[in-house]
Amino acid sequence: MKYQTQRVAYPFFVMAMVLFAAQVIFGVMAGLVYVIPEFLSEAMPFHIMRMSHTNLLIVWLLIGFFGATYYLLPEETENEIHSPTLAYIQLGIFVFAGAAALIGYQFGIHEGRHYLEQPVWVKVLLTISFLMFLYNASFTVLKGRKTAISLVLLLGLWLAAIFWLFAFYTPANMSLDKMYWWYIVHIWVEGVWELIMASLLGFLLIKMTGVDREVIEKWLYVIVGLALFTGLLGTGHHYYWIGTPGYWQPIGGFFSALEVLPFFAMVVFAFYMFWRGQRNHPNRAAILWTLGCAVMAFFGAGVWGFMHTLSFINYYTHGTQITAAHGHLAFFGAYVMLNLAIISYAMPHLRGQQPYNQVLNMWSFWIMTSAMAFMTFALTFAGVVQTHLQRVMGMNFMEVQEHLHLFYVFRLGSGIVVAIGVILFLYAIFGPSRSQASASAAHAPASP
Amino acid sequence: MTTAVQRLRTLPEAAYETGEFVMMEGLSRTAARNIFFGGSLFFFVIFVALTAHSHWYIVTQSTDHAGLNDSVKHGKAVWEEHSCINCHTLLGEGAYFAPELGNVWIRYGGLESPEGARAGIKTWMQIQPTGVPGRRQMPNFNLTDAELDALVDFFEWMSRINTQGWPPNVAG
What we know:
B: mainly alpha; 7 helices; 2 strands
């Protein structure tokens, strides 16, 4: 660790991982309800589990992004974080607000738009914390060296905060409500978050492959260009059936079909840089997560998104388990794995040790990733059957669900395996650093 | 013959200078940055213009904006207060755990018999949870009669949105 204030990232990563574990627990519980519907149906109905599951995901991903930003900005800008104190206060507010929302949900205190269920005062606190973060990060960049990586990262984070403001606008007309709701949800995950993703991948590749910054940053601009050129008008694939005009069908279909390009470019980018660079970085687990992130994002967000994005297909698949399959693998591949990559990379530096428990970390990679892939297949098959029975044959929803039981058992099973992978990951990064990977042990002086 | 690949491997810096870097020759970092900012701005302006038009279209064409009375608004508030969207879908968006409700008015025969549909939906809400073994259980939200009526008015209003013909059939 070259800069003292990079240490700021540590509590962010700890909190992110705690909330990640909680998210997966709620996910497994919700998966269990699909198989045993009576499970907690009085104490914690499904809608509470689901909002807990999705809100925890978003909150921990954001905390992970904050931590990643604090970790990389000193190295990119070549100076210390503007105010570490502000960073800790900002984290405290964010965690408090997130925890308050989560606890409130268990008592039925929530609002009614999915992902935006937080009460208004929680939304205000989240906004204040986000702005404190942006202030802190922006001044760090202004004082120091300005690289493309830090500029694209900051731009992504600023735009995420700006579009979040639509969370405060709830029109009475449901069609308008839905249209502007996507200004947050789509523009985040299929737009500006890709800026965050590409810049963090760029940082990891510079550090771990040693490839020239000039080349990496040129690729970075090409990738984020592709992301926004396709992703902005790609929002149209959510505007097919909600009362918006018919022209969104060709426009949304065309541009969202091209949304696969930035993800494909990220795969080529990651593997090409890895092939070009020196392949002797000791943190092999971090490299695995970095390359895996690009690949799984390509499949989850790119391929699985493309599968049902054209309007004449979406007409039949819209709002079925196909969407659930896509949502799970896209979030996991693009943003969960990204955070796990950067945490795997940063944690040895933050703990002042050589890369440790790498074998265990890599096991957790394969277990988590293959279980998520299996879950995606199970939900995809469920979605295909559902589409046929319900949308083509016109069979009643609840009757169709009975035919999907086996797929939901598979999904629950894979969810449990994901949870095991998460436990292994947490032990690998937080646990004692006894087992060294042989390659790194060779030139790694043992740390106390 | 010294292949390009060999030279890339041995002389990386020189290879970048001479533009042999695969797929990226002729594009400088500054040019890439300018294309990114210019292009993003271009597409953003188009996106905002189209959503502005869509806003106008929703208010004047596809929804009964004038018929958005207090009861429908109250129904939407009831819908949100109990976060129905975290089990059901509405126009295909939401959770996928419980049936689509954008067309529930139609499914209950509201077009033929409005009174029958209203009574049917209200009764269904009141008898929850069904307690049928192995069936997904909907909580009873203990809605008042006024809340139930408002919710039904909201469903009726939703069913009249021009959704470009979605869903394909009444099953939703």
